[in-house]
Amino acid sequence: MRSDGRLFSLTPRVLSLGWAYLSSLNLWDVTQPLMEELADRTKESCSVATLDLPDVVYVARVPTRRIMTISLGVGTRLPAHCTGMGRVLLAALPDAELDDFLADVELESFTERTITDAAGLRQAIERVREEGWALVDQELEMGLRSIAAPLRAEGRTIAALNVAVAAARVPLDDLLGTMLPELLRTAQLISTALDASRRNGGTRVTAAG
User: Fold this and answer.
1) I want to staple 153 with a disulfide (CB 3.0 to 4.6 A). Which of 45, 81, 122, 194 is the partner?
2) What ranges do the domains of the chain cover?
3) What is the rounded CA–CA span in Å between residue 9 and residue 88?
4) Distances (CA, A) of 87 to 25, 172, 191, 197
5) In degrees, to the nearest 5, what angle opens at C-alpha 102 toward C-alphas 100 and 103?
6) What are phi and psi of 109, to 5 degrees?
7) Domain 26-199: which CATH number of 3.30.450.40, 3.30.930.10, 3.30.360.10, 3.30.70.1170
8) What is the pLDDT along the chain (209 residues), one digit of tens a residue?
């Protein structure tokens, strides 16, 4: 930080902290080639985020078309309760932590479709736990749909991967019938690569197929 004698402000050196965090996760090296393949196959943007309650934080992104009115990039924060990656990461929380979150969080409404009651959100999270993936249909922004799946290392969910699409262009049947299998396949490949990378002491590992 720097000060003018009265006010404090951040300096560019704060970026080194962010990149140190991302490097420690070893996510980008592992995920980049697989995310690029996923974006190429689906022709849609994909992202990876981690949980920092009450938000998710984007740690990797491969964009294609611009489909949201907000700008997304590494470091972007979005509310966990109305995003696909957020639902996946909330589903991975221990029951006690999830209970605390639902008891304290203010569930802001972003569209007429946003779930804003704790009971409804819990039901949606339980569905993610059962199915192993999340669908969020125009809850964050009208016209935006996303599907998300967990990324696991050593049996623990450490992040989530999503594909985001424009609702006007991609019907639900296509999103779930065509893109969801691609998402789940890529999430499994990344999880396998993360495990291999950790066994090898953090050496870069890629998996294609």
Assistant:
1) 194
2) 26-199
3) 35
4) 21, 18, 18, 26
5) 65
6) -90, 125
7) 3.30.450.40
8) 555 556 655 444 443 444 444 444 566 778 899 999 999 999 999 999 999 999 999 999 998 865 554 567 788 999 999 999 999 999 999 999 999 999 999 999 999 999 999 999 999 999 999 999 999 999 999 999 999 999 999 899 999 999 999 999 999 999 999 999 999 999 999 999 988 877 776 544 333 33
